[in-house]
User: Which sequence fits this backbone?
């Protein structure tokens, strides 16, 4: 793997995250009805790894080319809006997934889940509102972001969130409880459930930078492999990590009789699988014409080596 | 009120609805996971008045001006996509509103509600997916619809669905149970809860036709007044109509101790209020430079005179 030795992921992440957290804070409207505003902020601003928005900003930097300061300005605003929108979609999915009719989870990022804290009705509405807000953030009424890019981002993110993406994957997941899935079907489920939004994060950042189609194709391979690696590691951590480290309830998958990479291939097999996927992700970057890929490579390495 | 005597709302509606139903049928993806596809179709294709899509098409016709056949083609496709997207948003909101943690309703359009028929988890996912699908439909990957119009429609509909629209109104509604709201606060709640999406329907149709800003302003007044009139009539019917005629459970509001126009001003007072609002709606049309407003006027009259 080829990260420039001088590249420091921690300080790059800290700087990017400071901006993203500020955008999330700014774009969650203080004007929402008070009983909705509080759970919206609770769901979104309560921490989290922000992997998706880091991927947006990493891909944006990888795709940057020579341009005027003015163009850079609106392209960067678009990337921050895309990162925010994707975090809003991710946050809504967590709120709804935690509800009693789904995973019935009471702990998220070390805090009571939204439905525990605010009741089920508001949890439902909070998720619904966060999804709508994502598309509001992508279509600012006064901005220099081109309508072309706004429409492209809306389409990309709607498709990643919908029936052929995250929500579709959830439905497959529901149907798979207690089933013996083989590796192909397990991968297909996760490509939708978590992979689609991670892949869209990479593509959104690159589209904001204006990269050419052939590089978008390679970034699609990168995002898809990374998304699957992320899920494999998630399955490993569900078995090996404490709830206190994860910030959510560990061991839920086995308890719910859900098929996982660990149940399918054991812990060592799953670790090998994650390594192979990250290798594939990095090969896609090498095959592209992108040069400033340090952040993306470093994020990919961190995905497999994380312990939370 | 000035409907051309020869204008026949029934045959106009039938023709428009045939197209809209075909679009809904076409754009609900057969490729969705099977367990999601069925409740999606059940939720959307199970009938309904389609008031919102008729408003889109009515406003589109009112706003049409001289243009090439080619321009008319993509503008009309945009209107059909906007009508479809708004029906998808409306359908998702009904699925979620009916859930046990919200209104806990078991009957909708004369059939078991989605959560009764498919379970709560799939009802939750179905609503989530329908909302995402709305934005997919608005941003086709191959189309002559300008990116400008695509982005405008996404923004308009996201805002009408979100915190400062439908979902926000639901949150205010939740907080208002058992409260003594005055008319101002009741109107504010309904302007969000049902008014915002009805108003957006009118504006979307007009934007697809390319009407000028001053006419959009008048159509906003029309849509807002009509939206409120619709809700006032809804409150009246909740008291006066049978469940079998409504296709949903009657008397729910009084039972749930929700404030309504009838509880606030009596049935006669509410009827008068609805008439005044429709008058206001029609005055806005007269104040515009739009000429082909027959369908919009006829729809407004039907809204106050309906018995279902």
Assistant:
């Amino acid at each position: 793997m080829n990260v420039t030795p001088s590249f420091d992921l921690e300080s790059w992440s800290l700087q990017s995250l400071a901006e993203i957290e500020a955008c999330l804070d700014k774009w969650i409207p203080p004007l929402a009805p008070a009983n909705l505003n509080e759970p919206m902020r609770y769901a979104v601003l309560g921490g989290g790894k922000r992997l998706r928005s880091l991927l947006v900003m990493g891909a944006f930097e990888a795709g940057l080319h020579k341009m005027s300061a003015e163009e850079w300005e609106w392209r960067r605003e678009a990337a921050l809006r895309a990162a925010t929108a994707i975090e809003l979609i991710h946050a809504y999915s967590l709120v709804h997934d935690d509800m009693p009719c789904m995973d019935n989870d009471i702990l998220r990022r070390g805090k009571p889940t939204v439905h525990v804290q605010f009741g089920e009705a508001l949890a439902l509405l909070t998720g619904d509102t966060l999804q709508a807000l994502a598309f509001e953030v992508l279509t600012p009424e006064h901005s220099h972001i081109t309508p072309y890019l706004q429409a492209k981002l809306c389409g990309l993110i709607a498709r990643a969130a919908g029936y052929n993406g995250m929500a579709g994957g959830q439905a497959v997941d529901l149907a798979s409880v207690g089933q013996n899935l083989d590796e192909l079907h397990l991968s297909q489920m996760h490509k939708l459930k978590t992979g689609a939004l991670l892949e869209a994060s990479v593509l959104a950042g690159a589209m904001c930078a204006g990269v050419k189609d052939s590089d978008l194709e390679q970034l699609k391979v990168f995002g898809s492999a990374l998304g699957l690696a992320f899920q494999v590691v998630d399955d490993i951590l569900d078995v090996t990590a404490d709830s206190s480290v994860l910030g959510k309830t560990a061991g839920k998958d086995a308890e719910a009789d859900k098929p996982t990479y660990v149940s399918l291939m054991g812990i060592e097999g799953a670790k090998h699988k994650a390594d192979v996927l990250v290798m594939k992700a990095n090969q896609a970057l090498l095959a592209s014409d992108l040069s400033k890929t340090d952040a993306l490579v470093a994020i990919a390495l961190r995905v497999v080596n994380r312990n939370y």
